[in-house]
Amino acid sequence: xxxxxxxIGIYFVAMAAIMWGFDAVVLTPxxxxxxxxxVVFILHALPFAVMQPLLFREYGWxxxxxxxxxxxxxxxxxxxxxxxxLAIVKALFLVEFKHLTVVALLQKLQPIFAxxxxxxxxxxxxxxxxxxxxxxxxxxxxxLTFEFHTxxxxxxGKMLPxxxxxxxxxxxxxxxxxxxKRIMGLLPFQTALFFRYGLTTLIMLGVVLSxxxxxxxxxxxxxNWTFFCIIGLTTGSGAILLYYYGLRHISAGTATxxxxxxxxxxxxxxxxxxxxxxxxxxxxxxxAMLYAIYRIGTAPAQHTKIQSTV
Length: 310
What we know:
Number of helices: 13
Number of strands: 0
Helix content: over 70%
Shape: globular
Strand content: under 5%
Order of helices and strands: HHHHHHHHHHHHH
Structural class: mainly alpha
Largest sheet: none
Radius of gyration: 19 Å
């Protein structure tokens, strides 16, 4: 692979990771005045609407895809689009701008869930290397979140539900990674992206209609719409496009290193925009957790193929 292409790949994946860090700390939490389900619906519906004139020919794939392809696309939309996004947005809203970095960092446990699910779905074996470093990552995540407090007492009890939602998001995104692995080799990327956003929009439309949350359109302020547009076109679908374009030119191990800019940038943005700092034990836990994730992601086994394929 030419060195120039590798540099381009590194740049695009790194930019996507930084954009996700900015979104988690600065953009999405600014929509806290709205219903979580409604927020997730709009964040997918707006980009999907923009895709219509650009990717309308993708509908032709409906005649070519097998039922199994549609099933896995639906699972990617359900876990990666609906459940995962609902969980992470709910976690960000719960912490009220005070522990956004912790929520963002917990999401980096995603590859552990992806590899565990791959063991069940793809029948891939778990190595001792993975088990050892997963335990380190989980312990680091615990002390990052609760420090030396019991979960129910940490940060007035708000961190426990926020952490559980963040872990649900990590599990959901990890699941979408495994299901996506089954279709990414069969469909062009833009086709998978188009139907992922379309199916997620339909799923979330059902959610907001059944809960009455669609009525929040009347409560959406001009500032809310501005943030919706910024997220939808930049840190949302825009960042995903950058990520996958870059991933075509670099290995999964290199991508793992680049993706560490997501939690690193989250820490920086949380300090610059919200004045929040990690405690010494949280810094130590963060270092241990991220290093463990790095060791898992760069292992010379089949697991490195799983983490970076959504």
